[in-house]
Design a protein that fits this description.
One of its GO terms (molecular function) is triacyl lipopeptide binding. The protein is an alpha/beta fold. The chain contains 17 helices and 32 strands. Among the domains are: about 90 residues, no CATH class; about 180 residues, Leucine-rich repeat, LRR (right-handed beta-alpha superhelix) (Alpha-Beta Horseshoe); about 140 residues, Rossmann fold (3-Layer(aba) Sandwich), CATH 3.40.50. It has a 20-stranded parallel beta sheet, with helices on one face. Strands 29-28-30-31-32 form a 5-stranded parallel beta sheet. A 3-stranded parallel beta sheet has the order 15-17-19. The longest helix is centred in the C-terminal third of the chain and has 25 residues.
């Protein structure tokens, strides 16, 4: 309907006018932290002083950094310029920033890098240059003066060349990240100048470049993370021409594509890296059936890897995958195995028996079920296992689960949470040395003597327990959070308890008997539990202050008036769009600014109301009902008029919004599909004068014909004839 958009048109225009007056260039000089992000700046704002330590200019439209822009910000520690349009940096732009520790120039338009930019950044530790448009790092090193650099982020989709000498000057890095998705040329030895890299992440697709980079990094990188590569069939050894001793201990593949052939070659090749202790594969794809070259793998000798972590691996031919028969000789030295969210439903008994050294096994979030668990944990399997995580699988029987797990003689930590057991028997078989048991979120309705008495830690949180009365003489920690307990468990049956969590239960009071024989040490209660009355009082005070704040803001920004107008619009929306013909009593409702009242009332009204036949006009000064709310007056007058006549001028679009009786005359939605609106342009209006939020006014002036008040008398006579004709149509 008309009225709503007409009302909000005027409000938006006037509010934007007020805000424009209040908003100036943000002053960053008064505080040490200056946040100027996402403010539409085309340049670095002037007036930056030595008080500023952090300057955030990210997500603006800055194209150039000039010499004088940062000259006074000598104490700057962090400069964030990411996601601008920077394509040019003066050579001495950062010359005064000797204390700068973080510089982020990522996601800009830098076509080259210059060592002169960084020549005086003696304290720089973190440099982010990824996401620009440079194709190489130049003929020499742009980082030669950055002796304290700790982390470096490089590369972009166009980055294609790494040359010898590009990293000269950098000896130690905590983190090196290279986006080399299109890296096609790597000069051997380019990364060898860096003596030590704790963690390197590289996005790479070219298999030859990958091999060369790995050979150069074996002596310096502790943890290498490779993403988005189709693992190649390596023709040359990964350790060929590599500097010894090797330092790499951990290798991670992310979003990598494996085949049966490439994974077989990878296993053989990685054995040559004698320092490698940990392998990870995250979000990878395996296209194959598990037909690996086990003979070649066995001939290559023993692996030095002790820890394997696989997360969210997708096997394309999952239903055809073999049981990895022949890999038994490669797993007997493995100590930790984690396979998460990978649809594992079984481990063949013959394979599980060869995990002779495995101490930690994590199968969280897989598809293990009870009848397959009998095969996975068969007699003689996992002989050294101490910790087992089977949480969030599809186990249904606690009795069977406990029976199969009792075959693990050295197990002392067990997590079987988030399985839907539902029931708990009175008697269960467990490993003799079980110390930790997690049964949280398993839907058990009670606890029974199925729980082993050897436990030192028990977690039965998030079940439906109404009481806890077990005798557990060795228990030290008990977690009963999110149950239905109304009383504390007795102290006597748990004499060695040192930690008890009973949050989010139905406890109302504690009895003396509950603590008999036990001294309460440290109690960890939340603020709400310890000081409930104080918290309630604080909440009441905060609510009261919030109400006061809302009242103050509402008064300042006329929120009550906004609400009244919205209510009036909702009421008007229920009415018919047009009043019945018998209720239409005006030819036109006139909307105009008070500054134009002399022309309207003395010239236009006289001309139209004294015409033959006369026109009947509705003016707010003369025809509004006294005592009636002004919005209702306007809506009723518009509905009772054939037309709405707008007298447009610069005063019209610049009216002060606080003068309600004037602004309401603008409240009408221009409907392009009918001729209800007549525009009279009293004087030329420059387009830049019309507020941007007057979008409907701009649109109608571009699409509807309007009448311009002329200067000459002859033209004025034609104006009146045209206006009368429009009113009659």
């Amino acid at each position: 309907t008309w009225q709503m958009l007409a009302i909000y048109m005027v409000l938006a225009a006037n509010l934007s006018e007020q805000q424009a007056l209040k908003q100036a260039s943000p002053s960053c000089c008064a505080s040490q932290l200056c946040n100027c992000s996402s403010m539409g700046f085309d340049f670095i704002p002037p007036g930056l002083t030595a008080k500023i330590t952090v300057l955030n200019l990210a997500h603006n439209r800055i194209k150039r950094i000039q010499s004088q822009d940062l000259q006074q910000a000598v104490n700057l520690r962090a400069l964030l310029l990411q996601s601008n349009r920077i394509s040019s940096i003066d050579e001495d732009s950062f010359q005064s920033l000797a204390k700068l520790e973080l510089l982020d120039l990522s996601n800009n338009s830098l076509a080259h890098l210059s060592s002169l930019w960084f020549g005086h950044l003696f304290s720089l530790q973190h440099l982010h240059l990824q996401g620009n448009s440079y194709r190489d790092l130049g003929q020499s090193s742009p980082f030669s003066s950055l002796r304290n650099l700790s982390s470096l982020h490089l590369g972009n989709p166009w980055f294609s060349v790494i040359r010898q000498g590009n990293f000269e000057g950098i000896e130690h890095l905590h983190k090196l990240w290279i986006d080399g998705s299109n890296l096609s040329q790597y000069e051997q030895g380019s990364l060898k100048s860096i003596k030590e890299i704790n963690h390197m992440i590289i996005n790479i697709r070219n298999i030859n470049v990958f091999s060369e980079i790995v050979r150069d990094l074996l002596h310096s990188v502790s943890w290498l993370e490779v993403t988005e590569i189709k693992l190649p069939v390596l023709k040359k050894s990964l350790v060929q021409n590599s500097t010894r001793p090797f330092r790499i201990q951990k290798l991670t593949f992310k979003e990598t594509f494996f085949t049966d052939q490439t994974i077989s070659h990878a296993i053989v090749s990685l054995k040559a890296i004698t320092s490698l202790k940990e392998l990870e594969a995250i979000n990878c794809v395996l296209a194959g059936k598990g037909i690996w070259n086990t003979k070649e793998i066995a001939r290559s000798g023993q692996s030095f890897v002790e820890t394997v972590m696989i997360k969210k691996i997708m096997i394309q031919n999952f239903h055809l995958f073999f049981d990895l028969e022949g890999m038994e000789s490669q797993i007997n030295e493995l100590k930790r195995l984690t396979i998460l969210s990978s649809n594992v439903f079984m481990v063949p008994c013959n394979l599980s028996r060869h995990f002779s050294s495995l101490q930690y096994l994590d199968f969280h979030d897989n598809l293990l079920v009870n009848n397959r668990l009998n095969e996975t944990i068969c007699k003689g399997s996992w002989p050294s296992l101490q910790t087992l995580n089977l949480s969030q699988n599809s186990l249904k029987s606690l009795e069977q689960t406990a029976k199969y797990i009792s075959r693990l003689p050295k197990l002392n930590n067990l997590d079987i949470s988030q399985n839907n057991f539902g029931e708990i028997p009175n008697v269960c078989e467990w490993p003799e040395n079980l110390k930790y048991l997690n049964l949280s979120s398993t839907q058990i309705p009670k606890v029974t003597t199925c729980i082993p008495q050897t436990l030192e830690v028990l977690d039965v949180s998030a079940n439906n327990l109404k009481e806890f009365g077990l005798q557990l003489p060795f228990l030290k920690e008990l977690y009963l959070t999110r149950n239905q307990l109304k009383t504390l468990p007795g102290a006597a049956p748990i004499p060695n308890l040192v930690a008890l969590s009973v949050r989010r239960n139905k406890l109302n009071s504690f009895s003396k008997e509950a603590f008999e024989g036990a001294q309460v040490g440290t109690v960890h209660l939340s603020v709400t539990e310890c000081h409930r009355s104080l918290v309630v009082s604080l909440i009441c005070v905060l609510v009261f202050l919030l109400i006061l704040l809302l009242v103050a803001v509402g008064y300042k920004y006329h929120m009550v008036w906004y609400l009244r107008m919205t209510w009036a619009w909702l009421q008007a929306k229920r009415k018919p769009k047009r009043a019945p013909p018998k209720d239409v009593c005006y030819d036109a409702f006139v909307s105009y600014s008070e500054n134009d009242s002399e022309w309207v009332e003395n010239t236009m009204v006289r001309e139209l109301e004294q015409a033959c036949p006369p026109f009947r006009l509705c003016l707010h000064k003369r025809d509004f009902v006294p005592g009636k709310w002004i919005v209702d007056n306007i809506i009723d007058s518009i509905e009772k008029s054939h037309k709405t006549l707008f007298v447009l001028s610069e005063h019209f679009v610049r009216s002060e919004w606080c003068k309600y009786e004037l602004d309401f005359s603008h409240f009408r939605l221009f409907d392009e599909n009918n001729d209800a609106a007549i525009l009279v342009l009293l004087e030329p209006i420059q387009s830049n004068v019309i507020p941007k939020r007057f979008c409907k006014l701009r649109k109608i002036m571009n699409t509807k014909t309007y009448l311009e008040w002329p200067a000459g008398e002859e033209e004025q006579q034609m104006f009146w004839e045209n206006l009368k004709g429009a009113l009659k149509s």
